Amino acid sequence: MADIASIDSLDAAGKKVLVRVDFNAPVDGEGNVTDDTRLRAALPTINKLINDGAKVILTSHRGRPAGTGYEEAFSLAPIARRLQELLGRDIVLTRDLIGPDVAEVVDAMGDGDVVLLENIRFDKREKKNDPEFARALADLADVYVNDAFGTAHRAHASTAGVAEYLPSYAGYLMQKEVATLTGMLDNPRRPFVAILGGSKVSDKIKVIDALMDKADVLIIGGGMCFTFLLAQGYSVGTSLKEDDWVERAGQMIQKAADKGVKLLLPVDVVVADRFAEDAETATVTVDAIPDDMMGLDIGPDTAAIYAEAIGGAATVFWNGPMGVFEMKPFEAGTLAVANAVAENQDADTIIGGGDSVAAVNKFNLADAMTFISTGGGASMELVQGEALPGVEALRVTAA
Ligand code: ADP
Ligand code: MG
Q1: How many Å apart are CA 242 and CA 288, to the nearest integer?
Q2: Which residues' Cβ are closer than 6 Å to ligand 1?
Q3: Homologous superfamily of the 7-174+388-397 domain (CATH)
Q4: Active-site hit among 38, 55, 82, 125
Q5: Could you give the CA distance from residue 180 to residue 333 in angstroms, rounded to a whole number?
Q6: Per residue in 257-309, pLDDT tens?
Q7: pTM for this one?
């Protein structure tokens, strides 16, 4: 981050500061934000700018509107209400995103005031990174701050394009996310244990490949383990499997052996006769998966082996649940791994990925972790070694 300016170096007093945040939070039918993690994560940056006496203009997307104008279902109104509570001050939600009416609202702001622009994806030029749209956004402000790590892997007008036209800075959340994840990759305390699960090998192969170059131990669970078990020559019944990826999984097994990375795969699994909470289940060793059953969790022997490896780690990175943790009969593997990570208080423990974070929250273990990334796709792309457009844009124009 050395070549990216921090908001700590910004003299924001009296300035109009356009801040891209990631307020893409879940909202229930009554218009209540059901998980305000992403709002809270942006508070250090927002409060710093308020305290500095900046005029804070916030912009975010929420969901996937058509991009043809205002849609009530995707309005930021519920976000604005929750944010007012969190900040303890009134904020103004604009109807327009750019143009004279917004400029008028901004001109009326006092130092320390906060304005939230409506859902930036109400205009389809946002996702197209349209230069004129980015320019019009920039015209609202004197300075740009990006604190939206969760959308840093997108090159949109408000995440990247606008940085062409304004002095640009990274907010605290952006800095923390990038510093934690790159620090883990570049200079982990060892042993470094990476745990990968979730549904598909095809989704995660680049992450597996990248972590193979960094980690000492690689633990595989979740739906994708069955493609690995196929590569080991086992039959996996009706489990989730990707036939086109068996060869690639075999190459990963070979790569681990060549590099001296300890690759841990399941030795037993929980199988079910169908994908349902009330399915018939059994625990079997991986050489005895019935043809008409599917594996929906790692088994207890596997969980014990994984927990022991995690207990010996100095750095843990975890992405992807070990099983279908959303259903009670298949949550034990994910819970055992979550507990093992939580119990290793000597290690740096970093959780990334939407469903893995949901699992940790479900088990009430979030507080025991060192760091929980707010970016699913963005953290995966960073771990894969890909440049994030939202970060690169700050690099180019850093003041
Ligand atoms: P993350 O969001 O943490 O990156 P993924 O999106 O890759 O994780 O995968 C999460 C999903 O994988 C969960 O909904 C979970 O139910 C599913 N899953 C885990 N294990 C299995 C399995 N054995 N069979 C089918 N789906 C699974
Ligand atoms: Mg997911």
Answers
A1: 20
A2: 198-199, 203, 222-223, 240, 295-296, 319-321, 323-324, 326, 353-356, 376
A3: Phosphoglycerate kinase, N-terminal domain (3.40.50.1260)
A4: 38
A5: 27
A6: 999 999 999 999 999 999 999 999 999 999 999 999 999 999 999 999 999 99
A7: 0.93
